[in-house]
């Protein structure tokens, strides 16, 4: 088999990261090896995101830059996958004449066949057919990075139809994967050295319901029983479906991390109704309180949309007030943008760009205050962190015989700590291998807006 290089540019959410891994695995069976260098690639795949206007613009500006590469290397195959591919289909071929393949969110399984067709006939192919069910692949392990953490998609699509959201149109109806397939995939990942799994779905709390499978908390129990796995995370939970059983799972399952992403989107009942979120501000706050009664230390994060159509000053103030009540550990906030097919695109009372920008800034400033407050409050405490590996800053400090490592607390906070080579093994390589993927106790010595600093509690932490 001829060996060729594949470069994948993944834009967007964790689900796309997972899909890109599947794509790399499938195409490896045709002889394609992943490369980190665009210039060396025989095929470039852009895995796209359509969630907000900005993400879509990023796709087309990247594709624009591909024109030159294709001129220099006409045999280069350019593929566009993911949500923008699903949404735009054939239009992409018209708009970007140097694209060879457009494949939608349900076409990944058919990609090897499509690529072979393009290679042999040099034709252009569009496949955006939406098929029921979820494709299961037996993939060769192609990732030779010393990863300790991986995503595993447990369900696809969404049935909620929030009025601003494009997901139900580009990912289709909600479908859950069979629990046996999920557990087998996780067992294989753990065998290859993975220590932490993040389960992915648009609304994990409705996992299995439609198809009469086990419930999400039951699935979590099965994952918790996988030997060798150290940590479990998941995202995203829809507040309307956050059950008591799931709240107790945080308390009862030792591997489940102490963090929930619970997007509220707005603090105003009027806006929540227009968004079709199916919960009120009061119900959301009640669930947060219940959760904190069951798990007092749980970290809560959220998503917020600034400037949804019709959002008055008073609606916006209610969002800020809700943030002051909840005191999120972290928060992602976005300016509202119209999306194709999403009903809010035709709502009246659109908010001006400048107002959206100002509101976004206010949300982010307020959140920075709480993130910092929470991080500073951790100073002096001890946290268990799973070590991810060397931090990016590392090369600067190597000459002091020190290495900076990075890891995460169960509550999903980044902690950096210094490891002095004199204290450890003979070589830095041994130290890196020994520490990466281990859970160690760290005393937190400082807190910043985006991370914490600490030092290992036990002098024998390497053993
Ligand atoms: N405009 C702005 N933000 C959006 N999101 C989803 N759709 C839109 C949109 N049209 C945000 C929501 C969601 C996150 C993934 O992206 O906050 O939770
Ligand atoms: Fe979009 Fe709402 Fe579904 Fe989330 S729950 S993917 S915001 S439609």
UniProtKB/TrEMBL annotation:
<dbReference type="InterPro" id="IPR013848">
    <property type="entry name" value="Methylthiotransferase_N"/>
</dbReference>
<dbReference type="GO" id="GO:0051539">
    <property type="term" value="F:4 iron, 4 sulfur cluster binding"/>
</dbReference>
<dbReference type="Pfam" id="PF00919">
    <property type="entry name" value="UPF0004"/>
</dbReference>
<protein>
    <recommendedName>
        <fullName>tRNA-2-methylthio-N(6)-dimethylallyladenosine synthase</fullName>
        <ecNumber>2.8.4.3</ecNumber>
    </recommendedName>
</protein>
<dbReference type="InterPro" id="IPR006638">
    <property type="entry name" value="Elp3/MiaA/NifB-like_rSAM"/>
</dbReference>
<dbReference type="GO" id="GO:0005829">
    <property type="term" value="C:cytosol"/>
</dbReference>
<comment type="subunit">
    <text>Monomer.</text>
</comment>
<keyword id="KW-0819">tRNA processing</keyword>
<dbReference type="GO" id="GO:0046872">
    <property type="term" value="F:metal ion binding"/>
</dbReference>
<keyword id="KW-0004">4Fe-4S</keyword>
<feature type="domain" description="TRAM">
    <location>
        <begin position="376"/>
        <end position="458"/>
    </location>
</feature>
<dbReference type="InterPro" id="IPR002792">
    <property type="entry name" value="TRAM_dom"/>
</dbReference>
<dbReference type="InterPro" id="IPR020612">
    <property type="entry name" value="Methylthiotransferase_CS"/>
</dbReference>
<keyword id="KW-0949">S-adenosyl-L-methionine</keyword>
<dbReference type="InterPro" id="IPR038135">
    <property type="entry name" value="Methylthiotransferase_N_sf"/>
</dbReference>
<feature type="binding site">
    <location>
        <position position="83"/>
    </location>
    <ligand>
        <name>[4Fe-4S] cluster 1</name>
    </ligand>
</feature>
<dbReference type="InterPro" id="IPR005839">
    <property type="entry name" value="Methylthiotransferase"/>
</dbReference>
<feature type="domain" description="Radical SAM core">
    <location>
        <begin position="144"/>
        <end position="373"/>
    </location>
</feature>
<keyword id="KW-0408">Iron</keyword>
<keyword id="KW-0479">Metal-binding</keyword>
<dbReference type="InterPro" id="IPR006463">
    <property type="entry name" value="MiaB_methiolase"/>
</dbReference>
<dbReference type="GO" id="GO:0035597">
    <property type="term" value="F:tRNA-2-methylthio-N(6)-dimethylallyladenosine(37) synthase activity"/>
</dbReference>
<dbReference type="Pfam" id="PF04055">
    <property type="entry name" value="Radical_SAM"/>
</dbReference>
<feature type="binding site">
    <location>
        <position position="49"/>
    </location>
    <ligand>
        <name>[4Fe-4S] cluster 1</name>
    </ligand>
</feature>
<keyword id="KW-0808">Transferase</keyword>
<dbReference type="InterPro" id="IPR058240">
    <property type="entry name" value="rSAM_sf"/>
</dbReference>
<comment type="similarity">
    <text>Belongs to the methylthiotransferase family. MiaB subfamily.</text>
</comment>
<feature type="binding site">
    <location>
        <position position="13"/>
    </location>
    <ligand>
        <name>[4Fe-4S] cluster 1</name>
    </ligand>
</feature>
<feature type="binding site">
    <location>
        <position position="162"/>
    </location>
    <ligand>
        <name>[4Fe-4S] cluster 2</name>
    </ligand>
</feature>
<comment type="function">
    <text>Catalyzes the methylthiolation of N6-(dimethylallyl)adenosine (i(6)A), leading to the formation of 2-methylthio-N6-(dimethylallyl)adenosine (ms(2)i(6)A) at position 37 in tRNAs that read codons beginning with uridine.</text>
</comment>
<keyword id="KW-0411">Iron-sulfur</keyword>
<feature type="binding site">
    <location>
        <position position="158"/>
    </location>
    <ligand>
        <name>[4Fe-4S] cluster 2</name>
    </ligand>
</feature>
<feature type="binding site">
    <location>
        <position position="165"/>
    </location>
    <ligand>
        <name>[4Fe-4S] cluster 2</name>
    </ligand>
</feature>
<dbReference type="InterPro" id="IPR023404">
    <property type="entry name" value="rSAM_horseshoe"/>
</dbReference>
<dbReference type="InterPro" id="IPR007197">
    <property type="entry name" value="rSAM"/>
</dbReference>
<feature type="domain" description="MTTase N-terminal">
    <location>
        <begin position="4"/>
        <end position="120"/>
    </location>
</feature>
<keyword id="KW-0963">Cytoplasm</keyword>
């Amino acid at each position: 088999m001829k060996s060729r290089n594949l470069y994948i540019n993944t834009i967007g959410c964790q689900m796309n990261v997972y899909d890109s891994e599947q794509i790399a695995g499938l195409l490896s069976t045709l002889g394609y090896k992943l490369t980190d260098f665009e210039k060396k690639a025989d095929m470039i795949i852009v895995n796209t995101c359509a969630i907000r206007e900005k993400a879509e613009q990023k796709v087309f500006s990247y594709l624009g830059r591909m024109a030159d590469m294709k001129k220099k290397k006409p045999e280069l195959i350019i593929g566009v996958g993911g949500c923008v591919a699903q949404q735009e289909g054939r239009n992409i071929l018209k708009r970007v004449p140097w694209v060879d393949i457009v494949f939608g969110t349900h076409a990944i399984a058919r990609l090897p066949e499509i690529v072979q067709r393009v290679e042999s006939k040099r034709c252009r192919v569009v496949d955006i057919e939406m098929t029921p069910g979820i494709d299961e692949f037996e993939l060769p392990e192609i990732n030779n990075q010393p990863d300790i953490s991986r995503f595993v998609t447990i369900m696809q699509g969404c049935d909620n139809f929030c009025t601003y959201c494009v997901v139900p149109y580009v990912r289709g109806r909600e479908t859950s994967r069979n629990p046996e397939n999920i557990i087998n995939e996780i067992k294989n990942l753990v065998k290859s050295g993975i220590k932490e799994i993040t389960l992915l779905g648009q609304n994990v709390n409705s996992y299995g319901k439609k198809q009469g499978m086990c419930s999400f908390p039951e699935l979590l129990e099965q994952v918790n029983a996988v030997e060798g796995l150290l940590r479990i995370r998941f995202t995203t939970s829809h507040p309307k479906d956050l059950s008591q059983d799931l709240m107790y799972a945080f308390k009862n399952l030792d591997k489940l991390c102490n963090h929930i992403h619970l997007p509220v989107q707005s603090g105003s009942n009027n806006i929540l109704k227009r968004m079709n979120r199916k919960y009120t501000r009061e119900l959301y706050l009640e669930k947060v309180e219940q959760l904190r009664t069951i798990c007092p230390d749980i970290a809560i994060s959220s998503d917020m949309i600034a400037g949804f159509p019709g959002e008055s000053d008073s609606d916006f103030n209610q969002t800020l007030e809700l943030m002051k009540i909840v005191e999120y550990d972290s928060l992602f906030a976005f300016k509202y943008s119209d999306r194709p097919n999403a009903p809010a695109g035709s709502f009246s009372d659109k908010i001006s760009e400048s107002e959206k920008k100002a509101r976004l800034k206010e949300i982010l400033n307020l959140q920075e205050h709480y993130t910092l407050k929470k991080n500073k409050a951790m100073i002096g405490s001890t946290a268990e962190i799973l070590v991810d590996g060397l931090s990016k800053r590392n090369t600067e400090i190597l000459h002091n015989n020190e290495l900076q490592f990075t890891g995460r607390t169960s509550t999903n906070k980044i902690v950096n700590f210094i490891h002095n080579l004199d204290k450890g093994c003979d070589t830095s390589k041994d130290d890196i291998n020994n520490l990466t993927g281990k859970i160690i106790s760290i005393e937190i010595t400082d807190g910043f807006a985006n991370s914490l600093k600490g030092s290992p509690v036990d002098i024998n932490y390497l053993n």
